[in-house]
Amino acid sequence: MARTSEMRLIELMVLKEDIASVLEFIGKRGTFQFLGKPHEDKKASDSAEDEIQLLMDTDCQYYEELLKASVFFGIETGSIDVTNFSVPTAEDRTKANKFLVSYKQIEEKLMEGHQLVEKVTDAYKEAKAFSNLKVSYSELEHLSFLSLKIGKIAPENFEMLKDSLQDNAVVIPLGEDNSRVIVASSKKGRFAMDTELKRCGFIQLDVPEDFQGVPEDVLASMQREKIEAENELEELNVEKNNFAETHKAMLINLLGTFAISKQISAVQRNLESTELVYRIKGWIPLSESQTYMQKLDDITEGRIAIREYNPLEVPDVVSGKEQVPVKLTHGKFVKSFERMIFSYGSPLYGTIDPTPFVAVFFTLLFGIMFGDFGQGLVFVLAGILMAKKVIKVGAWNKFAPIFMAIGITSSIMGLLTGEFFSNETLLEPFAEWVTGLFGHPHAPILTLMPSSNPSSIKAMFGVFGVAVAIGFVINTIGLIINIINNIMLKRYDEAFFGKNGLSGAVFFWYVIVLVLRMVLFHHSIAVYDWVIMGITLFLSAFEEPFKNLVAGKRPVFENGVGSFIISGVVGIIEVVSGYLSNTVSFVRVGAFALSHAVLDFLIYTLTQLCGGEGSIAGMIILVVGNAVIIVLEGMVVAIQVIRLQYYEFFSKFFHETGKEFKPFKFTIE
Hints:
The chain is 60% helix and 8% strand. It is of the alpha+beta class. It is extended and about 110 Å long.
């Protein structure tokens, strides 16, 4: 069985002149996790150190500005591989300075252009709105019986204002977009009008007393001014896009180099140090040890001291104050399942790595529960397109191998059940050819849909039996992992006693074997069966004194004999019900396989009732129905498989979690 990767703690003593190059190597290598919290005590700095720190601060400012520029120019930075770059040189700083000057100029021009367009557009809208006012405003304003206001509101508030004032005032739009209005009410109703206007965000406009509308020639001139401003803004956008295209490679290169400098600066200022030497401590995989020794010696030309420690040589690890970080090493397929492990918790260092088992169980269970050849091919195709980056879904692209794997197992199950995009007849020739090789040809190879045929009922229950058998295997592997892990950690009390220890495992296995003997060979329960089950159940349920004896804890009955008896009785119920539920829980695998077949049958039946695949209605039902099954049932099945992994498999051995290995590596933030 695979175990977590072996780790080593290394301690580096680095001269001040070499620290930047050493940190650059560590960040690019991406396999070094700094130990504990950063050291916060700062040494007194001299003028040379101040000069270096000032340069680093400048590089950080360059990076922040370049990052803003990348957003401004719409340049994607998420896929930049920082390991292809190095710390900035004087030439890089000169390029960055020139680039940022040009960027600021373009940004300023665009800002002015937007402001101008907004200004002339607002002016034109107001003028156009007031062009409808042909009566002198002063004549209206001084009417003794009328209270009149002209102003602006948000267009979406127009109807609300109109409804709220329908009994107290008249609301007249001046423009086409309802943003300028005249509101008139009687003098008595002006207080209600003012209240509603305030609630709707009304802004009163100052209108000259003799104002009688806007002449047509003025409107035309303002319209021309608006169009000219919009054209100038469009030209500025073209200039911006051209600049972005011609300077994209330079910007990416500068971002990469200054990202390295910024992150080196952040690490360096928190390192423990003296006047001349920096001290670096951290974890690396054992497989990286020789590479680090050689590369760091070459980089510093021998001006470095390196010490390497086995985890058992680290006092904080031995005392339990420090956990050794856990790194899992896998190929591309199994690696895609690592997030499923770490989302539940990290295994303890030095224990068995469960990821390969999860990869196999997940793909197998999903395929059984989601059997359709056509729908499975959709998952395969989606996985291939995600792997080729044709479909880009962010962090989900790394799960492309999972999509391909579950697609393959679903397709295989579909071949067995004869389902192809809910069609039950298309794969019949294949099924008859395969079954003909072993006897009488029939289709499908495996019948899931219940019918009056006794063979179909038998096949359906056979699927449930297979599901329970898979559950037994998964539970068994979980128990074995728990026993081996505890032996490796020298926790012999946990390894041999308790529900998930050897005693509980033997009880579980013996009961299963006994049931099989009774069902298949018609054996009756013998005395020795009761003895074996009784002893193993007793050691599982009444575990406390036995664990304390093995672990050397005293007193053996920690809370007294009475408490021991009560907890033991409760333990018997827990052990029996726990193993029963752990096994029966896998019946859901067969239930979901059956429900998938029923859904396919319903889609196919509805398609035929609407004219079949040759009709428009039938094709719509077929396409939409299969899409719903793929998306919704696919999600439900995935959740159920994850649940089975977490509650029936992980619960056997994940009683304590470790610390995930998270090495320092350069990134574009």
